[in-house]
Amino acid sequence: MENIATLKGHHGGVTHLQLSSDNMKLYSGARKVYEKFHTFHLIFTFHHIFKDQEILCWDLRNYGEILHIIRRNCPTNQRIYFDINFQHNILATGDDQQVRFYDLNNQQSMDNNNRVLKPFNEFHSHNNRVNGVR
């Protein structure tokens, strides 16, 4: 039981992990993080919010390499879960008021410069946060 790798990429605490069916990819999602800023002239402490709005797909054969980035709007302290279908080619996640679907095998939907996957389908679910899709 020893550490074999440390994967760095999220700013907030990791709240959801899912391993691919072939055990070669790891998907991770995180929650937002707060950072304190002190001012010299005021007594108050200001909190700045960094929203960790990405699901990262890690290549476990090459530790540290991020294969895909899925961006989502997470304006809440709730955990925002995601799920992957049985064929392991579609990832679904909640967003502010949307449910979005991403094709994990379609390189055409990826922006090659920054590896961001774009959704191939989405729908408005309701007028509140969507924090889980199953």
Automatic annotation (TrEMBL):
It comes from the Eukaryota. Pfam families: WD40. Transmembrane segments: none annotated. Signal peptide: none annotated. InterPro entries: SWT21/TCAB1_mRNA_Telomere (IPR051150), WD40/YVTN_repeat-like_dom_sf (IPR015943), WD40_repeat_dom_sf (IPR036322), WD40_rpt (IPR001680). Belongs to the TCAB1 family. This is WD repeat-containing protein 79.
